[in-house]
Amino acid sequence: MALVVGAIIVLAALSLAFELSRGKSAKRKYMVWGITTMLPIAFVFSWLVALIYGDWIAHDGFAAIGLMMLLIPLFFLTGVVLLLVGLFTKEKQS
């Protein structure tokens, strides 16, 4: 049940980010996807992956926590980079 709720949250965040960035400039897309990657995706997706790995593959809760401790900063920093690219990208003048 927890996997289903987490998957629904991730899918809802992805669909919301897709809708918010559709038809927008590249600057706006980077900003939307950066914020989406930092907040809902970094935490919930990392939790999902760690839960699946720890429960089904390694059968060890400490492995799940260790993987989550690696994935959250990785995804969060990816979101920060996307947000910064969006903030410092210049709009094309036409």
From TrEMBL:
Transmembrane recorded as keyword:
yes
Entry keywords, A to Z = Membrane, Transmembrane, Transmembrane helix
Q: Which residues cross the membrane?
A: 33-53, 65-88
Q: What protein name does the entry list? A: CHASE2 domain-containing sensor protein
Q: Which organism is it from?
A: Paenibacillus favisporus
